[in-house]
Amino acid sequence: MKEQKQDFPLDITISFHKVVEQYQDRLKVEENPIAKKYIKSLLEYVDQYPKLVEGIQEIKDLEKYKEPIKILLDDLFPNVLSNNEIKAVSIPYHNILFNHSNRLKNIIKAAGKDFKPKMREIDNNSAYINACINILNNYYDYNIDFSRPPYYDIPDENGIEKHYRAGLNGDFVELYPKDEAQEITQKDVDDLLQDVENIELWKEKFPPCSWMFKGFIIVNLTDVTIEDAISELKTALLFQKTAQKDELDKLQRIFRTIYKIPDLRVGFTGYNAEDKTFEKVMKMKAKSFILNEDLQSDCKTGICEQSFSNLIEKNKKFSIPNVEKYAKENDNLLSRNLLANDVKSCILAPLAKNGNLVGILELVANRKNVLNRINAMKLDEILPYIITASERNKNDFENRIKAVIQSECTSIHPSVLWVFEREARKFISDYDSDGLASFKDIVFKDVYPLYGQIDIVASSDARNEAIQKDLLYQLDVILEIIDKAYNIEELPIYEQVKFRIKEFRIDIDESLNASSEQKIFGLLQREVNPLMEHLEKQSEEIRIMVADYREMLNPETGIIYNHRKDYDDTVQQINRTMSRFLDKRQLEAQNIYPHYFERYKTDGVDHNMYIGPSLTKNKPFNKVYLFNLRLWQIKTMVEMENKFYHLQQSTPMHLDAASLILVYNTTLSIRYRMDEKKFDVDGTYNARYEIIKKRIDKAFIKGTEERITQKGKIVIIYSQKSDEREYLRYAKYLQAKSYLGDELELLELEDVQGVIGLKAIRVNILYTSEHKEHEKPITYENLMEELH
């Protein structure tokens, strides 16, 4: 065929000889006189056009033989099915269709005057290889699976592109080799399949135009527009990385294809489950027809009761076939915004999985009734993929929220995380909208503070004593080495260094101050260490003594840390155990009423708690929750005191604890300061609370030099008579429960700068031996006797 591809293994001739042969064979056996007469007359008619059998070589001749071809193929293209079947005659891998069925003619006509249907693009190399595989399968009887049906994309009268899959019938084709064709062996096939993409190898085994194709192919087209669109949608959703405008335009085009509505629009509205609000998702760049220009709206007030029930509660689709009628019956945000956007019908589809609603997919049209409950069912196959993509976007969004909070706020207590998430959403929305965003300070107003501490008694003295013991011991070891050296060789320099060391020893033994350790360090660096390098060469005995001395030293500082290590290890173990215990108890306390909690470790464990309605979400506040938390605090701190002393059995050192609670009966405001990344009391008046916290543990009883905090006792500091009555009730209850003893004192505190008029309840704590909770509780003095 002259117009065929030159670089192609087949030499194509359009021939109908196989159809004629079938009629000739049938005529020999046909018994029906009517059919026999028809076949005979048909063959006589075809004999007038020998080219139909011999073969047509030029495309232009197809028009010349149009009528006889139509008559010859009448049985294959029955007139009664012509308006239903999408059918034509073609030749392989060429955009040539003829003898169209009526329906195919109408489809092509609707596409436009100059439209010519073409197969979806297939590159020349693939077409060449596929033709060769056809030869292997049909001539050599191989069974190589290469099924990949061709497709035709044809727009309809509305400009919506429709997709047709082509089913090919090759019953009327004869394939045979020409003189230049090569004989194909099994080895050739093995080589070809081993290197399928090697086009030169295929051309070597199947040279261009070396095989004869004589006949025609019947093409049956099937409308797969919806299936193809759904498949494309699945792919788009599966690999969607962004929600930019081109991606949304693509989704809108796909939905227009599925619904055959050229002006269909797609929107999306997010759902915030915590606030029960609709939200515009700025990152998606998608129109929200529910919200229109609003950024957020309460669900119940934004839509009617029926749509709320369907979408939010039942997660079912909600259709409005006639928006104008709906608006007359339901004057709400939804109806007003739909009318404002010239929407006449719509489908709202919830995107939910396992009852967790992510958002609402909106399909809207400018004509009434074109979107309705019936065609809403088309979404059933698609929604799972949209939901999966929406979940992925939601997870990405939540990760962005966490990233913003982590970047702007560091760690946040779970009880108030909801407020930070809300601010983070606003931050992301502002950023996605115009690229500018700032995370604002967060304030909780009218909250009640609770403060408590378990402090190590005289921790500075204990630390200094440990330092003193280490320094004295180190000097004694050095003196012992120098004495040994002096006994071997009486050098004056030894006497002078010994004198210097003894002077330092007397000073440290009498009093340790901030510069003592630095002075010792200077002595070691300037005089002792150089001397040690000399002494270790004097004798084997001294060498061993110096080596043992160096083994005792901290490699970084060159100072002995034995007692300090005992102190540090003890404090670390106490803080770690007490913190874990308090954290565990805190989880239980959150069940009383959600509240903010923070703790920090110094020489002991301090904690702050804040409780009030502004800290919680959708939960009414009553002061009974505050009273419960106060009682919980005393009880927990007594338990922590017990835990503290139980630890003394396994710690390197024995330390004492003193517990304190501050009662502050006035509400205050706390602010999370973005610059400092922490909560702080807000306002000058409220700052008095922080001043009291910092000074009370060092306060004295009025008129005495006795500290208010004492080991074996818990102190409750307050200023109001009502606080005294409240905490005396708690003390009486805990005495009855054997948490507290009978030694209860009511005391006044010495006024200090900025803090006046404070009072205290001080009561002794009862202790139980670990794992012996059912034994009779004991006092601090009894406990010390047990421990020692």
Rg computed from alpha carbons, rounded to a whole number of angstroms = 46 Å
Q: How much beta, percentage-wise? A: 15-25%
Q: Spans with pLDDT under 50 lasting ≥5 residues?
A: 404-410
Largest sheet: 9 strands, mixed
Organism: Zunongwangia profunda (strain DSM 18752 / CCTCC AB 206139 / SM-A87) (Wangia profunda)
Protein name: GAF domain-containing protein
Topology:
Elements: E1 10-14, H1 17-29, H2 33-46, H3 51-54, H4 60-64, H5 66-72, E2 86-90, E3 97-98, H6 102-111, H7 124-138, E4 151-155, E5 161-169, E6 173-177, H8 186-194, H9 199-205, E7 211-215, E8 217-223, H10 225-239, H11 245-259, E9 265-272, E10 277-279, E11 296-298, H12 299-302, H13 305-313, E12 318-320, H14 323-329, H15 333-340, E13 345-353, E14 356-365, H16 383-409, H17 417-434, E15 442-456, H18 459-488, H19 492-510, H20 516-535, H21 540-552, H22 562-589, E16 596-602, E17 604-611, H23 623-647, E18 657-663, E19 668-673, E20 678-682, H24 687-695, E21 713-718, H25 721-736, E22 740-748, E23 759-765, H26 780-787
Parallel strand pairs: 1-7, 18-21
Antiparallel strand pairs: 2-3, 2-8, 4-5, 5-8, 6-7, 9-10, 9-14, 10-11, 12-13, 13-14, 15-17, 15-18, 15-19, 16-17, 19-20, 21-23, 22-23
Helix pairs in contact: 1-2, 10-11, 10-16, 14-15, 16-17, 18-19, 18-20, 18-21, 18-22, 19-20, 22-23
